[in-house]
Write a structure and sequence with these properties.
heterodimer, A: about 170 residues, Alpha-Beta Plaits, two-stranded antiparallel sheet, B: about 350 residues, 3-stranded antiparallel beta sheet
Chain lengths: ~170, ~350
């Protein structure tokens, strides 16, 4: 018989404590029910972009002094220069799929040249285009081979020129 | 002798965030023995650092060890190399490094809290925390230009400067975040269903924590007063209001509370950095090559991250050794598993915040 009032007292106490939480929980549910979703309606609504966001590297060829600093510092090796064997002119190659947008090349580019800059644009996914890798592997080989070949050519020419000069003096 | 049953957890499991394999020997519901295998995402980063890349590029490689504490790895490596080469960077660069480090800690802790909630069966809180975490991700994007891979710390300084517009964006995001964190904190403190899953479960007492060398929030939740930020001055933490946070209970609730209180402290530090950012250059010129040996430790969100670097006066380093916090906490984790219920295993695992990419590297 003594249990009953104690039980009711506990129950009313519990209800009293819970009531405030209950109300806040119901309010929370209602606000969540009628509030806008936290996600964006993606394909129709694009994410706001800041100018500071990192993206692709833009190359301005007329400004370039061909010091090859960017090729040296690029961590993934996304910038490679191939060389023309005849006149030694460099060609700039950039793989946007390999680039990690770290902008180390932009910082390495000498102040007097500043041929490289970073934009906030990104490259669309390669998808089924299988040529992306094969194309780049070829350039990787070519970048090493063409430079070596040009060096050899130059050395050969020099030695020939040297021989000529020697024979002339002799 | 009663019959036991072996239950494998992982390497792919719905309660796991990352590939790790556990074998639990269970007697009814109780785990009586546990073992772990962590090598599922080995990528050979250490060898790549010492063979394929130049020492100035390695900072970007070690950032890719872990997505959550990318900036911590880069900072630790950079500080080690700077120690080796005797470079002293500018004060502004140091403060900016601290800013990026603390933003990283906030997002990592929020992710951990979200997953702890999820693994305790509280999906709504998981979603809410992840939604609020978006604010700090946006702040990081404003600061570094990228959400996850910051590439902010370079040898000699930092990669980008902040201007007044950026500081305003950061302040706005952090003010919003502060209110959200208060909400999450009150949820973790007062919600009854979370308390049932957290309080008194996964207990690691002080002696055991000391015996197994628990570090980071796990150790601090058990009352170990250790934090690299407190014992070493690798970044100017003493100037910006760092405070050592410890709890005594050592259960999942205590670990969550350590993380929540660290969030508050990190927010305070970021505010102080934004208020008192020194003027000056953001980087110094680096010349020469590293020669000799150096080590550096940095407080990652999960504990102490250790780097050993050996250079032989060439562009390529001779050795880079990485010791990550999760690896150091695995013995303690195994000990906590033994004696608890199998049903609690996911919650305990999430409370340890394991980062397997770091561990296997």
């Amino acid at each position: 018989m003594r249990m009953r009032p104690l039980f009711w007292r506990h129950l009313t106490l519990a209800c009293h404590v819970r009531r405030s939480k209950m109300i806040s929980a119901i309010l929370n549910t209602l606000t969540n029910l009628f509030s806008k979703p936290a996600t964006r309606n993606y394909p129709f609504e694009k994410e706001p972009k800041d100018d500071n966001y990192r993206g692709l590297i833009v190359f301005d060829e007329p400004k370039c002094i061909w010091c090859l600093q960017c090729e040296k510092v690029c961590p993934p090796g996304a910038i490679l220069f191939t060389q023309n064997i005849e006149n030694g002119a460099y060609t700039y190659n950039y793989n946007p799929y390999l680039c990690i947008y770290c902008a180390e090349c932009v910082r390495a580019c000498p102040d007097k040249a500043s041929a490289l800059s970073q934009c906030d644009g990104l490259i669309p996914p390669a998808g089924k285009n299988q040529n992306v890798n094969d194309y780049w592997f070829k350039i990787e080989e070519e970048a090493i081979a063409s430079k070596e070949e040009y060096k050899k050519m130059k050395a050969l020419k020099k030695s020939q020129g040297g021989d000529d000069a020697k024979t002339e003096t002799a | 002798m009663s019959k036991t049953i072996n239950i494998p957890l992982g390497s792919q499991h719905i309660a796991l965030l990352e590939p790790v394999h556990f074998t639990f020997e269970c007697e009814n519901e109780h785990i009586i023995a546990a073992s772990a295998d962590v090598g599922y995402v080995h990528r050979g980063v250490e060898l790549a650092c010492a063979s394929k890349f130049r020492f100035k590029q390695v900072g970007f490689v070690v950032s890719r060890v872990c997505g959550l504490c990318a900036i911590i790895h880069a900072t630790c490596y950079t500080l080690a190399v700077e120690k080796l080469m005797g470079i002293e960077t500018t004060k502004r660069a140091q403060w900016l490094r601290l800013l990026a480090n603390e933003l990283d800690r906030i997002h990592s802790h929020l992710l951990c809290l979200a997953h702890t909630a999820e693994n305790a069966g509280f999906e709504a809180l998981f979603m809410q925390t992840m939604k609020d975490r978006e604010l700090v991700m946006e702040a990081q994007e404003a600061l570094c230009g990228n959400r996850v891979q910051f590439d902010f710390v370079t040898i000699g300084g930092v990669a980008r400067d902040v201007d007044s517009r950026m500081i305003a964006i950061l302040r706005e995001k952090l003010t919003k975040l502060e209110q959200k964190i208060e909400n999450i904190k009150s949820m973790f403190l007062t919600n009854q269903s979370l308390s049932l899953k957290y309080k008194g479960i996964g207990k690691l007492d002080f002696n055991k924590a000391e015996e197994f060398c628990a570090i980071g929030p796990i150790g601090r939740a058990s009352g170990i007063k250790h934090d690299v930020r407190a014992v070493s001055d690798y970044l100017p933490y003493s100037d910006v209001g760092y405070r050592l946070i410890t709890e005594t209970d050592g259960d999942i609730h205590a670990r969550n509370m350590v993380r929540l209180r660290e969030l508050d402290n990190s927010l305070l530090m970021i505010r102080n950095v934004l208020d008192g950012l020194p003027e000056g250059d953001i980087a110094v010129k680096v010349s020469g090559m590293p020669e000799g040996e150096a080590y550096m430790r940095v407080e990652a969100p999960r504990g102490e991250c250790f780097y050993y670097v050996k250079g032989v006066k060439s562009q390529t380093l001779d050795r880079v050794k990485i010791k990550t916090p999760t690896f150091a906490c695995i013995p303690a984790m195994i000990d906590v598993f033994v004696g608890s219920d199998y049903a609690d295993a996911p919650a305990i695992l999430a409370s340890f915040d394991p980062c397997m990419s770091c561990t296997a590297k």
